[in-house]
Design a protein that fits this description.
- Helices cover 51% and strands 25% of the residues.
- By secondary structure, it is α+β, with helices and mostly antiparallel strands.
- α2 crosses α3.
- The radius of gyration is 13 Å and the shape is globular.
């Protein structure tokens, strides 16, 4: 538990989590996920359809915010955790 408390205080790595999406925008979201990860089409589709799922782990806040903005622009609901 002490390690968890330490991590909260000086957190420098964040996870980008897809929490939901607009069904009409699914293809665009899959394309964005493929672009920001090294996943193939099938894997990206499964990740999006399996929301809520973490898209990227251990990234800087700046990168997380940038990717979140891109995904939200195409209809995804994303949170940084």
């Amino acid at each position: 538990e002490a390690a968890e408390e330490e991590a909260k205080e000086e957190k420098t790595a964040f996870d980008l989590k897809l929490t939901g999406f607009d069904a009409k925008a699914k293809i665009k979201i899959i394309k964005e996920v493929r672009g920001m990860t090294s996943l193939g089409l099938k894997e990206a589709k499964e990740l999006v359809e399996g929301a809520p799922k973490v898209i990227k782990s251990d990234i800087k806040m700046e990168e997380a915010e940038e990717l979140k903005k891109k995904l939200e622009e195409v209809g995804a609901t994303v949170e940084i955790v």
